[in-house]
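name: query_chain
kind: protein
chains: 1
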Amino acid sequence: MCFMLLPIKEVKAQIIIADIIKTAITKVIKAVDLQVQRLQNETIWLQNAQKTLENNMSKLKLTEIKDWVEKQRKQYDDYFQELWKVKAALTSYQRVKDIINRQLQMVNEYKSAWTLFRKDKNFTASELEYMFNIYNGMLNESLKSIDQLFLVANAFATQMGMQKGWK
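structure:
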């Protein structure tokens, strides 16, 4: 009978050791599982932080691009406005040129008409003097117009020169 009792004690001891090992393994597994969950939570937090940083960097890049585009738009707008002024000035200069050409035509016609009038024996001295005064008045008014045109043209040239100096 003794022999029967001995194996039971050994089996009970083995069961107790197995329970202790099982409990230790369970605790180790739970500890490892908790550690894995902590690492997963940290990884998720780091991924969210990375996304936030990437979004902020994208916003900064978009702001830089928007600022650059706005500077380009303003530069080309300023350039266009200056070209518009130059176009207006050139148009005015063409008009000035046309007016001066008409003035020259008038002076040339005056010279040829005056030459014809003086050669014509049908005009009296007082009639010639009267015609001279009329043409002389027209020429003086014409010169005033040309002087005013030069003032306008020179004022614009001065303004353009000043604008170049200020930029």
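note: Helices lie at 2-119, 125-166.
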